[in-house]
Structure formats: C-alpha cells, structure tokens
Please model this.
Amino acid sequence: MALRQILTIPDKRLREKAKPVEKVDDRLRSLMDDMYETMTFDDQGVGLAANQIGVLERVIVIDIGPEYNKDPLFMANPEIISLSRDVITIKDGCLSVPEIYAETTRSERIVVKYLDRQNRERTLEASGLLSACLQHEIDHLNGILFVDHLTALKRKMVLAKALKKGKTNKKKS
Model:
C-alpha cells in the first residue's frame, strides 16, 4: 500500500469523467488499498474516488466509521439505480476542496449496484450519511464536485475561499 497525492481544485482532472473497469483484479485491489490508506491518513476523509488521485477509473472507497456499524466499502463501477424523493441536508466537505464545508442536499436513501473486491456484483441500500457519501463519491466519478450542488453565488464564494486557502498553504510550504 502507498499514499497517493490527492488532487485539489482547480486541477482539471477532477472534472473528467472516470471510465468503467472491466473487472476487479489484483491491480484494482491494490489501487483500492492505496486509496483507503490515502483517505484515512491522519483521519482525513470518509470517502475517496479514484479520479481524486488522478486515476480515471470508476472506483471508490468509503469508510464512515464503526460508530455507524459499517465496514469499509470498496466499489468498482458504482451506479445509483434508485433515489428516494426524501432528502437530507448535510455539512459536506471534500479532500479535493480542503478545509471548505457547505450544506448540501442529497437523497436520503439510495440503492447502488457495484462490483466488490472479489469482482462480484452487489447491490447496497443506503440511507443517511452513507447515502450522502456514496452520492458524493459517485459524483466525483462523473466530474462533479460537492460545490456544484450549491447556488451559483454560494459556489462562487466557496470556490474563491478554497482557492485563496490553496495559495496561502502553498506559500507556507
């Protein structure tokens, strides 16, 4: 396993759509392990999409923690097949938009079809935080950032703040 560099805005690769994988094999499992290690380094995040580390393949990892009685999820080709009309509003953040948080609204319940680590097709029903995390990461695979769910004015303010923070952090390095 190896830590990978997480891309941050305004990197154009974050806006690219990831390609489906043919199967989950040892190479892809190694990628998933690297993604998990990168995501959980210093308890940074709860989800990561492959394109956030510059790999344009439809792979995500999620770990919302034991307090939700959920094991880490490793998914290839995740696809939302059902969304509830009920919504939840959560405080959203992203490793690719560091230190920026905003309220977003997502479907409260979803059903996702995907390939697991053993290349078996699975279906998962998710609600609450897990549902929101899955939608967030699947958005990444489609080149969509959480800030795209904000109003135009709020998005402009959040992105300006994020870019300013990025420039400030680079000067400190």
Notes: The helical segments are 26-40, 128-141, 152-172. The chain is about 30% helix and 30% strand. The chain has a mean pLDDT of 90.
